[in-house]
């Protein structure tokens, strides 16, 4: 006969792994998008003229506002927070600490996005169509370097958040094996 506590612990155990994997996957998607921008998209756009740069960034900013990216962006926060709560409630403090570290780093990335990148995107959009902008170079200058600096910071934060989740996954697996839930 199993007690209610054992059943509750077993239910949490079945939820902990999938939540941690979802957190890792969603943070990985966001970190990957940011990383790809940092190493390919922005360096490629840096080689274009002012009109092409502004037109491309306006189109990219409109395109990134979609359900797929939005789900990963929001899901990262939700899954990581839920995984931290479950691991902590299961007494897996080491894994929970790494998940919390990931969540804090991810929040830094979100704060940079909301506080710097999105306002710059909105300002660039408000400048209007590139064909109607009188001083393309000034609009680009006001956007490009500040956006890239903030983008680099949020990329680093999200990649570090992903690394923390990798460590949490390893600790989670060790705890699962110790609890007899996974083969040794």
Give an overview of the whole structure:
This protein has 184 residues and is an all-alpha fold. The protein has one domain (13-178). The chain contains five helices and no strands. It has helices at residues 4-46, 50-64, 67-89, 93-126, 136-178. Helix 1 (4-46) runs antiparallel to helix 5 (136-178) and helix 4 runs antiparallel to helix 5 (136-178). The chain is elongated and about 65 Å long. The relative contact order is 0.16. The model has no long low-confidence stretch (mean pLDDT 92).
Task: Summarize this structure as a short list of keywords or feature phrases.
0% strand; 184 residues; mainly alpha
Outline:
By secondary structure, the chain is an all-alpha fold.
Element layout with pairings:
Layout: H1 4-46, H2 50-64, H3 67-89, H4 93-126, H5 136-178
Q: What about the largest sheet? A: none
Radius of gyration, in angstroms, nearest whole number: 21 Å
Q: What structural class do helix, strand and pairing data support? A: mainly alpha
What distance separates the N and C termini?
A: 26 Å
Oligomer: single chain
- Count the E strands: 0
**Can you give the mean pLDDT?**
92
- What global shape is seen? elongated
Strand content is under 5%
Please trace the helix and strand order, writing H or E for each element. HHHHH
* Annotation field: number of helices: 5
Instruction: Count up the domains.
Output: 1
- Helix content, binned percent: over 70%
Query: Low-confidence stretches at least 5 residues in length (pLDDT < 50)?
Result: none
């Amino acid at each position: 006969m199993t007690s209610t506590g054992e059943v509750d612990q077993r239910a949490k155990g079945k939820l902990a792994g999938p939540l941690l994997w979802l957190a890792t996957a969603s943070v990985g998607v966001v970190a990957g998008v940011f990383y790809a921008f940092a190493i390919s998209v922005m360096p490629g756009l840096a080689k274009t003229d002012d009109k092409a740069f502004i037109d491309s960034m306006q189109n990219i900013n409109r395109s990134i506002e979609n359900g797929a990216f939005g789900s990963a962006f929001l899901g990262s926060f939700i899954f990581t927070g839920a995984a931290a709560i479950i691991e902590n409630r299961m007494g897996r403090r080491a894994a929970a600490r790494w998940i919390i570290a990931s969540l804090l780093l991810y929040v830094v990335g979100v704060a940079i996005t909301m506080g710097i990148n999105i306002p710059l995107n909105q300002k660039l959009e408000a400048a209007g169509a590139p064909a109607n902008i009188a001083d393309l170079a000034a609009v680009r200058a006001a956007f490009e370097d500040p956006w890239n600096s903030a983008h680099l910071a949020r990329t680093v934060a999200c990649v570090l958040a992903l690394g923390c989740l990798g460590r949490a996954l390893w600790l989670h697996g060790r705890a699962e094996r110790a609890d007899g839930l996974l083969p040794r």
